[in-house]
Amino acid sequence: MWEVIAWLLFFFVIISLLVVVVYQLMCFADLEFDYSNPYDCASRINCVILPEFITQAILCSLYLLTGHWVMFLLASPYLYYNLRLYGRREHLVDVTEIFNQLNREKKQRLFKLGYLIMLLFITLFWMIFNALEDDEI
Question: CA 46, CA 91: separation in Å to the nearest integer?
Fold first, then answer.
């Protein structure tokens, strides 16, 4: 039973990461179509970047603490990329350069979105597998 609860927790953490990344993509789309100005877009995105990094670190530590080594290894490149961005001080969106970096930032978020969707499907598979396994016992 505890395995299913753990996978359910992982599922909700990944869903929260997906929401944050989709929110960032929506902010970039608003900027691209002139629905918001660069300052508002940058401030909205910069507000959610650190919570995204912290949530990803929590997800990796939960995988590690619960003994799901393969999932930890699958989630760790995303964490390493976030830590590298933070270490180089490239994690925040610059207001003055936002239009020049718009395509690169959108591609970065789309790659993160695809990566998180892959993790979500793997998590769903293991959650369903463990629920069916517990049901048999």
Answer: 8
